[in-house]
Structure formats: C-alpha cells, structure tokens
Amino acid sequence: MNNERTQRKNDDFSISNPERDLAEVSEWSKKGYQYLKEKRISDAIECFNKILTLDKDNSYALVGMGDAFRKWGAFQEAVSYYQRCLNSHPGNNYTLFGLADCYKMLNQFHKAIEIWEQYLHHDDKNITVLTRIADAYRKVHDFRHSKTMYLRVLTMEEKNPYAIIGLGHLHYDFKEYHDALFYWKKMLEFDPDNVDIRVLTSIGNCHRKLKTFTEGIAYFDKALRRDPYNFYALFGLADCYRGLNQQNRSLEYWNRILEQDPRNKVILTRAGDAYRNQGDYERAVEYYERAMNIEFDTYALLGLALVARNQGKHEEAIASLHRLIRQAPRNYRFYLEMADCYTKKGETNNAIETLEEFQRLGIRSSPIIERLEQLKS
Fold first, then answer.
1. 185-195, pLDDT tens digit by residue?
2. Identical fold at 18-111 and 125-195?
3. If I label 310, which of 68, 132, 149, 358 is the partner at 20 to 30 A Cα–Cα?
4. What tens digit of pLDDT does each residue of 21-42 get?
5. What is the CATH number of domain 125-195?
6. Between vectors from CA 265 to CA 264 and to CA 269, what angle results, nearest 5°?
7. Mean pLDDT for the chain?
8. Which whole-number Å values give the CA distances from 288 to 139, 247, 268, 315, 324, in the listed order?
C-alpha cells in the first residue's frame, strides 16, 4: 500500500506543471545567486543544475554556472557554459562580461577584446568594460588602442584611478618613463595620504629607470613606511643605493629581502656584487656560491670569475668565463672579461684571439672593437 502511494506521488511529480516549475526555477535561481555572493560555490552549482534539468537553455542558470566556475578558477568550464548561453541568448550582457573575463584570465587577450567590443554595442558607456579593454590592449602591446580607450574613460570620469594608473603602466611598458610619471603623480594629487602603495613603488621604479636615484629613494621610503616587508620597496631602495654606489646601504636592503626569502638567487647575486664592489671577497664568494647551490646562475658564476680575477687567480677566472661563453656565446661581456684576464697574465695574443672569436660570430660590438684596437696598437 505504501509503495503504491509513493509511486502515485512520484507519478504526480513527473507530470509537467508549468506554474510549479516556474516557481521552483525562480526560487533556485535566487538561492543560487545568493550562494555565489556567500562563496558557497558547490551549493550554487547544485541550484543551477536543478534549473537546467527543467530548462536546459535557462539563461540565469547558464550564466550562474559560468560565474560559479569562474569564481572557482575553472575558466575553461566557465567558458563552455557562457558559450551555451550565447547560443540560446545572443548578446546577453552578463554572459559577454563573464566570457571576456575568462579569456582575460586564460591570457587570451585578443578573444577577450573581441567579446568586450561586442558588449560595448549594448552599453558603450560602461567604464569597467572600457578600462578592461584598455588593459587587454596593453597586454598585447597595442599602444594606440590602449591609450585611446584609457583616454575615453577619462573624458567620462576625469579622476578614474584605473585609467590613470593604466596609462602610467602603458607608458612605462613602452619605456616612456616621463609620461608614466605624469600619470602616476596625478594619483598623488588626488589623494596624497591614501594613494595605493603600488603607485609609490611604480613612481620609484620610473626614477630607477631614469637614474634619478635620489628621487626614487624618497618614494620607496614612503612605501616602506607603509609596509616594512614590501619586496618592491626593499628592492627599489637596494637598487637605487647600488646606482649611487653606496654599497653598504644597498646591502642593508638586499639582506632584508634575504631574511624573508633566503633562497632568492637573484638577490643573493646582487648582494654578492655589493660585497665584491666593497672588496669583501670572502662574503661575495659565500653569496655567489649560495646562489649557485640553488640553481646555476649566470651572474653568480660571473661574480665568482670577477672575484678570482681581482684576487689574481686568472686561470680560475678564465675557466669560469669559458663555461659562461659555452652557456651564452653571444654575450660580449664574457669575452671582454676573459681578454682582460689574459692581458693581466701578459698573454696579449690570447686576449686578441678571444675578442676575434667573438667577432667571428658576426655580431658588431663597439666595446669589443675598441678593446681590440687598444690591444693591437
């Protein structure tokens, strides 16, 4: 009897009831999007799947599934749901936005631009989309279109921080450091006390590139006061002091980075260079060898070769330089350093032969030509 009652109940449920289905779809949709807000992604997916069993082309459920997988970082799965939605509902704004964002996260910037451009046909005043298109053009090194989009945003919203910062990055990427400074300093004019720390380090980096190291130090110092462990501020300060040939100060910051990241071979090599330039060869060798023990590093081996040369161990230096040339035969500096070692040994012919070996590669290098002329004269 109970089995018969259960069977009748299931049969009743299986009969299509449009009003009931519509109410359930509406309820599941609300719950699904609420779960998305609460980051309960699995629960959201369960709700949207229930909708899709009743209506496989439901736009809310398909967009919801796309959004859920996108928030999970499963971008390919998200793309499949967004594309299903577009097949049934061409031009759906939420779908276009999510799909473009997935392509951006997959580093498929040209596809992202194409989708965002479609979005603009429906809403050409959307500042968020315009800045994302500008960012994507910047990622593919399309200076003209990127700048046009950023400036378009600024005509609509004069103080838009994303467009101003984006213009700074755009000019920085194209080595136009004075123009990058112009835009990043605008952020300081708008809100000097609460400007993003990344703006401060970006301004500092412009000064590093322009070799106006003292001005760069001021901005990196401001950043470090905000965050005493900020890698970019510590690196910028160390590099600026290196540029000013204040090796002691640079070492202070290289070593502060190494306290946090003792296996950073780039920083170990930079610190080794600073010790070498101070004449502290023992410490320099210690840092270079620490870098080499992590992984082969060209600059660490070069540093060891230069220490050996400075200590008069010319054969040891030449052996290291031979190894470097095998690794990177087109780097003219290795040939110059080796020629210098041979010269110090009194073997001028070997020095000349070393430089002529580089010339046989067919690469023109002014320092090589000048040094050859000096040796031959």
1. 999 998 888 89
2. yes
3. 358
4. 677 888 999 999 999 999 999 9
5. 1.25.40.10
6. 125
7. 93
8. 35, 16, 7, 19, 15
